[in-house]
Amino acid sequence: MQTQFFLMNPQELLKRYASGERDFNRASLTNGEFINADLRGIILSRADMEWVNLSGANLSGAVLCGAEIVNAMLIKAELVDANLAGANLSRSDLSWANLTRANLSRAELSETTLRGTVLQGANLSRVDLANADLRGLTLDGVNLSGANLQGANLHGTELKQANLTRVDLIQADVSNANLSGTNLSGANLSGANLTAANLTGANLSRVDLTEVKLSDANLAKANLVGAELAKADLSSLELSDVNLSGANLSGANLSHTNLSRADLSGANLQGANLSHAKLVGTNLRGANLQGANLQGALLDNADLSQTDLRSANLSGLVFNGVKLRGANLSGANLREVELTEANFSRADLVEANLSRARLVGANLSRATLSEANLSRATLSGATLSRATFSGGLLGTVDLSGVNLSGADLGDANLSGSNLSRADLTRANLTAADMSGANLSEVDLRGTIMPDGRRRA
């Protein structure tokens, strides 16, 4: 049903307003001139106000719900505590207007000019600001939940502690903006420009950040739980202590990024570039690192328990104090890796290449190393109890003093290895190649020997 308006010229409205009348619902004031008029508390709900000039007017406390204020001039207008819910202000000029505590929920502000506009404490929930120019505005603490800011320009905008939950910021320019402490949970920022943005302590949980530009952005202590960051460029960023648990970082660029003490548990890092990344003390428990590039990464004291590292290239890395309990490293390249005191208990290392790896003091108890290559690896002080080495290559390995109790070494190649003082109690050596091995002072109680006989 078409809205019925009643025509009124500016002089008549101002006269009736001066006499105390306030309710002008559905008035048609098209092209009206109200420059510097005092219209405090006026009611103009669903009024037709296209091309109206209200520059310098005082509309504080006015009710303008659902009003059509398209192509209007509201430069330096006072709209403090005004109710503009559902109003259409598209293509209007609100430069330097004062909208403190105004209600703009569900308002249409596409292509609206907001240069220097004051919006402190305003309610902008579900507002349409698509392609709006909000550069340099102060919107600290503003409620923009559910708003449409697609393609908007927010360069240098102040948005500290603002509510931006479920906001649409697709392809928006948020570069150099201050979003510290802002709640962006559930927002869509795909393709947005966040270059040099301040996001310290921001809530970015479940946010879509696909192909976002984040160079020089500050994400310290941000919450990125479950965030969508596939193919995002996060290279060289400071992400220490950041929560990225369950995030999708598949194909993301994290080269030279500082992720020390970050929570990446359960994250998808398949095919991600982590070359030269700092992962000291990082929680990667249960993460998917299949096909990830970790060349030159620092992983001291990182937790990689139950991580998927199948066929990963980890050659030459240093893993001091790393937890790899239950990790899947089948087919991984660990050649010449430094794994001193690493915890590999129950890890899957089937067909892994550990040649020349340094595993001093490492815990490999119950690990599966079937068909693994451990030639020339250093295992002094390592725990290998109840590990499975069937078909593994351990030729010329120094296993002196190592605990191999209950280990399965069936069909393993132990030729030329040093097993002096090793504990092989209850181990299985069926069909193992022991030619040239040093077995001096070895404990073989209950061991099944290569010929299938069990020692007493």
Topology:
Elements: E1 6-7, H1 10-18, E2 27-28
Parallel strand pairs: 1-2
Distance between the termini: 98 Å
The CATH H-level homologous superfamily of the domain at 1-95:
E3 ubiquitin-protein ligase SopA
Low-confidence blocks of residues: none
What is the CATH topology assignment of the domain at 1-95?
Answer: Pectate Lyase C-like
Which percent bin holds the helix content? under 10%
SS-derived structural category: little secondary structure
Oligomer: single chain
Number of strands: 2
Shape: rod-shaped
Distinct helical segment count: 1
Radius of gyration equals: 34 Å
Give the spatial strand order of the biggest sheet. 1-2
Indicate the proportion of strand residues: under 5%
- Give the H and E element order: EHE
Average pLDDT taken over every residue? 93
Assigned CATH class of the domain at 1-95: Mainly Beta
Sheet with the most strands, sense and barrel status: 2 strands, parallel
CATH architectural grouping of the domain at 1-95 = 3 Solenoid
